[in-house]
Specification:
Blueprint lengths: L6 E2 L4 E5 L6 E5 L2 H5 L11 H5 L1 H10 L10 E4 L6 E9 L2 E9 L4 H17 L3 H16 L3 E7 L5 E8 L3 E3 L2 E2 L11 E3 L6 H9 L2 E4 L7 E4 L17 H9 L4 E9 L2 E10 L7 H35 L5 H5 L4 H15 L4 E6 L2 E6 L4 H14 L6 E3 L16 E9 L7 E8 L3 E5 L19 E5 L8 H29 L4 H16 L9 H18 L3 E8 L2 H8 L1 H17 L6 E6 L2 E7 L3 H16 L12 E7 L6 H17 L5 E3 L2 H4 L1
Parallel strand pairs: 11-21, 26-27
Antiparallel strand pairs: 1-13, 2-3, 2-6, 3-13, 4-5, 5-6, 7-8, 7-15, 8-11, 9-10, 12-14, 14-15, 16-17, 16-20, 18-19, 19-20, 21-22, 23-25, 23-26, 24-25
Helix pairs in contact: 4-5, 4-8, 5-8, 8-12, 12-13, 15-16
Amino acid sequence: MSKHHSLLQSFGALLVLDADSRRIQAMSSNVAVLLGISLPNGRLPTLSSVLGKRLGQRVRYELQGQQRLPGPLTFKCPARPNRFQLHAYRAGSHVLIEIEPLHTLGKQRLLGTVNERLMRLAEATHQEELLDYLVIAVQQLTGHDRVSVCHFDSDWHGIIVAGSLATERALPGAELPVGRLPDLLGQRFPAKDFPIALRRSYERHPVRLIQDVMAPCEHLLPKEVAVDVSDCFLRAPAPERQQYLQRLGVRGALSVAMQGDAGLWGLLFCHSASAHPVTPPVRDAVRTLVQMATQRLLLLRARQEARYLQRVQDSLVLSTNNRLKPQGPYQLFTEHADTWRSLFRANGVALWVKGSVYQSGNTPKPEVISQLVTRIEKAHVHSGPWCTQETAKEPLTSSLDLLEQSGVLAVPLPTDPTQRGWLMFFRPEQVETLYWAMQPSSVPLPPMMMSPSDAWCEEVTGKSEAWQRVERLAAMDLGEDLTLAISAYEISTLNMHLERERKALAEANQRLKQLAHFDPLTQVWNRYRIEQAIDAELVAAKRYGAAFSVLLFDVDHFKQINDTLGHSVGDDVLISLARLVEGSLRGCDHLGRWGGEEFVVLATHSNMEAAEGLAERLRGLVATLEVNGLVQPITVSIGVTVWQPDDSCKTIIARADAAMYRAKRNGRNRVEITKKALQE
C-alpha cells in the first residue's frame, strides 16, 4: 500500500473495524479532536465509547451479509453538541466507517428548494437552457465561486459547455458572493487531464469533494494496520491532482459525474479559490439535480435524433406512383440531391452506380470519385458506412485529388451482387479555433507556470466537421431506400426489354422480391414489407373485427456493442437475434426489421393479454442468446399495443414506439404495454 493511500482529508474522520464490526483496529489521527473523546495512554478507544453501544450494535446488525449500509446513519456524540453522519462499508477484511459533522440546514427548506429546481430542469426544452439552469441552481446550493459543466468528445478532450460565476445573479431574488475565478466557458481541457483511471473512479464514485486542497492530511493510527482507503470518500487528493487544481487557482472543489447511455458524458465541477465545505445533504441535493439534468439531456438528444431520422426517411418515400413507374438513378438523384445536401450539411453529394457518376454541388472529378469507390470497395467490406473528416491524412484518400473536400461519408448500396453502388457526401475544411484552458502538451508543467486565465489558442486546419452518429445512421436508412428504388427501376427495365427471356426475367423478379421485401442483413421482412402486412391486417380487422397486436423492440446498448467490439459483432447480434425470434413465432405471426436495431412483430388474432405474454417470452428467449465475441448478455426493450378502431399503420406503430421508449426509460430489458389512456 502506498503512503498516499492512507492519507485522508481532515473534514471527516475514519474508523477501521475488524470484519465483525466489533473492535477498532485503526482510525484517522483527527478522531479524538473531531468527536471530543480522550485516548487514554494513546491507545485506541472502544467502539462503544465512540459511537455508543446502541449505534455500534445497529451498524453490526445492518452490515451482516451486506457490503455497505443501505443509507447513512446519524448520531450525537456525548462530548459534542452537534450531530454526525456515518457511512459504513466493507473493504477487504475490514469495515470502514466514515464520519462527518452534520450541520443543521433546515431539511424541509432544502427539500423544497431541490424539488423546485427539479421541476425547472424537467421543463427545459433544449440543452443550453437545461445546462445553464443546472449550473446556476448548483451554485446557489453550494456557494462555490464557479460552477461548470465539462462535456467529453470522442477523444476524451473536455469542453466547458455551461458555466456560472459567483459574480452573476443566479435566480430571482438571490445574489451570490463575488467570485475570484475566471470564466472557462468555451475552453477545452486536453484528454491527459482525464486519464482512464480518473474516469473509472468516477464510475465507482460519482461524487468527489476536496474541501481544502492546501489543508494538511490526516493519517491512520496505528500505521502498521494495512488498509487501502482509495475508495474512501474522505481520501486525500493525489499529489498530481493537488498540483493540477493549484494551477487552476482552485482550493475547494466538488465534482459530480454525468453518466450517459454509453459511459461518462461529462462532469459538473464546482470550484472555489478558498477552502469550501459542502455538507452531506447539499452534496446529495447536487447529485440529484445532476442526475435529473443528465437524464433530461439524454431524452432531449434522443428526441432530436428521432426527428432528424424521420426527416431523412421522408426524403425518399417510395410512393405508389413510383412503385408503378420506378425512376432511374439519374431521375432520383436529380430530384432529391439538394434535399440530401441540406439534411447532411454537405456541400456536395455524388452517386456511383455501375460506373456512372451523378454529382451535385462541390464534388471531386468523376474519375477521382471512381478511384475512391475502387479503394473503399476493397478496404471496406462490411455493410456499414465509411467516413473520414481528414482526407489528407486518411490512407485511402491522401493521394487523391479531392480538391477542397476534407470530409467524406460513403454509404454502400447493394444494388448488384458483384459491385456495390455508393452514395457519397462531401464536406469542406472547417478551420476551427480551439481555446485550451491548459496547453495539451505531454510535457508536465510545474504548478502555476501558466495562469489559469490565459487560455492557449490552437487553430485546427485540414479537418471537416465531424460526421455525427445519427448522421451515419440516417445515411444507412437513406441508402436502404435508395437501393430499393434503384433495384425496382432495374427490374422494371428488365421486364420491358427481356420479356422473351423468361429465365433471366424470373431471376430478376426474384432479386426484386428479395430486395423489396427482405432486409439484406437479417433476411427477415424489411420495413416496407412489414408495413404492407400491417396495412392488410388493418383491413381485415375493420371488416371482421379480428384483433391483432404489434410488438416493437430495440436491442439495449447496441451502440456500445458496435463502438467497443466492431460492426461485424453488431451485425452478428442482429442476425442471430432475428433467427431466434423468427423461429419462435407462430406460422401466422410475422417479424420485420424496422430499422437499425429495431424490430417489429405482427401477432395476428392476438389480444393484449396474449401479446404481453408473447413479449415476455421473447424477452426471456433473447436473454439466452449467445454470440461469439460478446461477453455480456443481449437484452431488449419491448413496447406492446393492440389494434384499435380507426387505427392506421402510423398510429399503431407510434403507440408501440412510445411504450418501447418507456421500457428503455424504466431500466431496459423489460416489456411495457400501451397505457390505458392511449387505448381509449
